[in-house]
Hints:
Blueprint: E1 7-13, E2 16-24, E3 29-31, E4 34-35, H1 36-39, H2 44-50, H3 52-57, E5 63-70, H4 74-92, H5 94-103
Parallel strand pairs: 3-5
Antiparallel strand pairs: 1-2, 2-5, 3-4
Amino acid sequence: MADKSYFYGLGRRKSATATARLYAGKGEITINGETAAKYLDDNKTLLAELTDPLALVGKQTDFDITLLIKGGGTSGQVDAAKLAISKALATINDDLKGSLSKAGYLRRDSRVTERKKYGLKGARKREQFSKR
């Protein structure tokens, strides 16, 4: 490891943005000043998904993670946080980058909400067509 005090990663998904800082520690995850379990309302699925990149490289108890998340819903926030953690892990070691990349954790999901167009009721919904 380098002599920096933390490793940084940025992740985005839909309208959620997450920044991750990995410090040397015991494996505690803090999201916006709260513990991860409290922030995610003890949702076991989302908690497991959040720690997937760490589990893949076997570093669950090596780092304390501080996440700052803005925007989006819970699922999008977790996906953004997962990407941020993966990017931070990738800066540590090239071997980790290879395994994370193969598992698809360094790939950004670019799907976002389509904007509403003028003259329509939504992005694609329109008035029913009348032939006569």
